[in-house]
Amino acid sequence: MEKKIKIGIPNWLTIFRIFLVPVFVILIGYDKPLYALLIFILAGLTDALDGYLARKLNQITNLGKILDPIADKALLVSAFIFIYNSNLEIKFPYWFVVLVISRDIYLIAGSALIYFFKGYVKIKPSVFGKLTTFFQISSVVVVLCANIFYFPYEYLLYVFYITAFFTILSAITYTRDGLKQL
Fold first, then answer.
1. Which domain covers residue 167, as residue numbers?
2. For the chain, how many structural domains are there in total?
3. Domain boundary residue among 57, 88, 119?
4. DSSP string covering the chain, please?
5. Are 152 and 167 found together in one domain?
6. What is the residue-level pLDDT of the chain in tens, covering all 182 positions?
7. Are 43 and 119 part of one and the same domain?
8. pTM tops 0.85, yes or no
C-alpha cells in the first residue's frame, strides 16, 4: 500500500511562489518593472499567507520547512542577479549583488559543514537575519519602483548601505551561532 503525501494549502502556496520566480525573471528580462513589481508583491503575499495558514491550520510540514526557504532564496537571488543584468535604467551596484549572494553561499556552506561534522544543523532565525530579509526585499521593491517613478539615486544608496550592513551583521551572528554548534 502506497503512502500518499498530503501537501496542504500552505505548501501549494509555496509551490505557486516557486512558479512565480520564472514569471518575475521574464518580466525583468522584457523590461517590465511594474509587472515584475506586482509579481514580486504577489510572491511576498503568498509567503506571508502560507506561513500564517501553516500555523493557523496546524499544517507545518517537513516539506514546507524545505520548500519555503528555497522559494524565498530563489526569488531574492533571481531578483538581484537578473535586475543587475537587465536593461533597466536603475540597477543594483555590482558590489551589492556580490555581497548578498556571497552571504547566502557562505551560510549554506557553513550549514553543510556543521551537518557534515555533527549530523544535524539547528537553524534558528535571528533578528538580524529577519531584518536582512526585510531590507533585501525592500531593496528589490525600491529598485523596481525607481524604474517606474523618479527616485534620487542617493536615496537608493541609503537603502543599499542599510541592507549591506544588516547582511554583514547577520552573517556574523550566524557564524557565531554556527561556531557554538560545532
1. 90-182
2. 2
3. 88
4. -PPPPP-HHHHHHHHHHHHHHHHHHHHHHTT-HHHHHHHHHHHHHHHHHHHHHHHHTT---HHHHHHHHHHHHHHHHHHHHHHHTSS-SS---HHHHHHHHHHHHHHHHHHHHHHHHHS-------HHHHHHHHHHHHHHHHHHHHTTS---HHHHHHHHHHHHHHHHHHHHHHHHHHHHH-
5. yes
6. 566 667 889 999 999 999 999 999 999 999 999 999 999 999 999 999 998 898 898 888 888 888 888 999 999 999 999 999 999 999 999 999 999 999 999 999 999 999 999 888 887 888 999 899 999 999 999 999 999 998 888 899 999 999 999 999 999 999 999 998 88
7. no
8. yes
